[in-house]
Design brief:
The structure holds two protein chains of two kinds. By secondary structure, chain A is an all-alpha fold. Chain A has two domains: 1-98, no CATH class; 102-194. Chain A is 82% helix and 0% strand. Chain A has helices spanning 3-29, 41-57, 59-66, 74-95, 102-141, 146-163, 166-192. By secondary structure, chain B is mainly alpha-helical. Chain B has two domains: 36-77 and 85-113, no CATH class; 115-187, no CATH class. In chain B, 38% of the residues lie in helices and 6% in strands. In chain B, 7% of the residues are buried. Classes of the chains: A mainly alpha, B mainly alpha. The A-B interface holds A 34-36, 38-39, 98, 100-103, 106, 161-162, 164-165, 167-168, 171-173, 175-176, 179-180, 183, 187, 189-194 and B 1, 3-5, 7-9, 11-13, 15-16, 19-20, 23, 26, 33-39, 50, 54-59, 101, 104-105, 108-109, 112.
Chain lengths: 194, 187
């Protein structure tokens, strides 16, 4: 089994396990089968907590774009990755497997696509960079000059760039998710009360 | 590969605007499918619009409930026990949502922690009371758990039982009062 296949399987397994655990928690915390957790004060609190974590995820792209020193905010990227998983897990606990109203369902689908595209992009990007570094070390070991190494790696670096296609899905879909999320929150407050 | 977010954003933004526009249009035609957490119960199947029960940013309010379930309607159309209980609750200005809920499906029970009267209507005839709360305190914070009050109605009932009316024997009146007769055979 290739490294890519193995890593993909691990990530897919962990994702499925996280979803199952979140749905399990929602089931256990629901007062009754006809009263989902999302309809309770606890469910609302978990939803707000998930929203808070998701909002913190945006610190990374904001810092990256507007940082004065133009340095890559590595710390905020760690926050982006961690809360980009934890926030949606809390939202999944908040919602459970109850899909009636279309607006929150669409928001959930958009959130799922954003998370999956983020995870997939991170995995692919990591593997591409690792391959590039390994090739670079091997060519240096063979005694090639820096210019020759750069020339040979040019095509590989081009391949790495193709992995960045995930950003085409990840970033714009985030905007769609935010709009749908705001609609859901607005609707819940409008009909359910502040 | 020329596929940067800057190039894709206008497309996604356009698609999002279309989706939001469609949601706005659909909200006027079938709001329940878009916003409601579940189908309305059979009791409220004839409700025409969300604002018939919901006040903007205040939720489903007692005032909205009372616009249909008024004191006058309870007095005219309900069974005595139901009527007296609800008139008492309305007099105390207790919120309807303390006991009732909605959007749990057409066949769902809309009274949370709905209690079945284990005594049957017989208990009201025997004690001369009209509501459960004449003899019981209902602890809302404990999921509607009942406790027996220490008042004249309860004391009379215990006294009349001559030892038979005690915890564990209260509930099923008709076990001894066969056929709903106040007198016990052999007395």
């Amino acid at each position: 089994m290739s490294l890519l296949a193995r890593r993909t399987l691990i990530v897919a397994g962990l994702t499925i396990a996280a979803v199952a655990v979140a749905l399990g928690i929602e089931y256990v915390l629901s007062p009754r089968s006809d009263q989902p957790l999302g309809h309770t004060q606890t469910g609302h609190a978990i939803g707000w907590a998930g929203l808070l974590l998701i909002l913190l995820v945006f610190a990374y792209p904001i810092r990256k774009r507007f940082a004065k020193d133009r340095r890559w905010p590595k710390g905020w990227f760690q926050v982006h990755k961690a809360f980009g998983i934890l926030g949606p897990i809390l939202i999944l606990i908040h919602s459970g497997a109850h899909f009636h109203a279309l607006v929150p369902v669409l928001a959930m689908v958009a959130m799922g696509l954003v998370v999956v595209s983020g995870i997939a992009g991170q995995v692919l990007h990591y593997l591409a960079l690792r391959t590039l570094n390994e090739q670079q070390r091997e060519l240096a070991h063979q005694g090639l000059s820096e210019a020759e190494i750069q020339s040979r790696l040019h095509d590989l670096a081009g391949q790495e760039k193709t992995f960045r296609v995930w950003q085409c899905i990840h970033a714009p879909l985030t905007a769609t998710f935010v709009v749908l999320m705001l609609l859901h929150i607005g609707g819940a407050l409008y009909f359910g009360g502040l | 590969m020329k596929c940067l977010p800057a190039n894709v954003f206008p497309l996604v933004l356009g698609a999002t605007v279309i989706v939001v526009g469609w949601l706005g249009w659909a909200s006027t035609r079938d709001p329940e499918s878009l916003w409601a957490p579940g189908d309305l119960s059979r009791y409220h199947a004839d409700v025409k619009s969300c604002t018939q029960c919901h006040e903007p940013f205040r939720g489903a309010t007692t005032a909205k409930c009372s616009s249909c379930h008024s004191v006058k309607k309870f007095a005219a159309k309900s069974k005595p026990a139901v009527r007296d209980f609800h008139l008492e609750v309305m007099q105390k200005a207790q919120p309807c949502l303390a006991c009732h809920t909605e959007h749990r499906g057409a066949l769902a029970q809309i009274t949370t922690g709905a209690m079945i009267n284990p005594h049957g209507e017989f208990i009201f005839r025997a004690t001369g009371t009209r509501t459960c709360t004449a003899c019981h305190a209902i602890a809302a914070a404990k999921g509607g758990r009942l406790s027996l009050l220490d008042n004249a109605a309860v004391r009379d009932l215990i006294g009349e039982g001559e030892g038979a009316h005690r915890p564990g024997k209260f509930a099923d009146c008709l076990r001894c009062h066969v056929g709903g007769q106040l007198e016990i055979e052999g007395d």
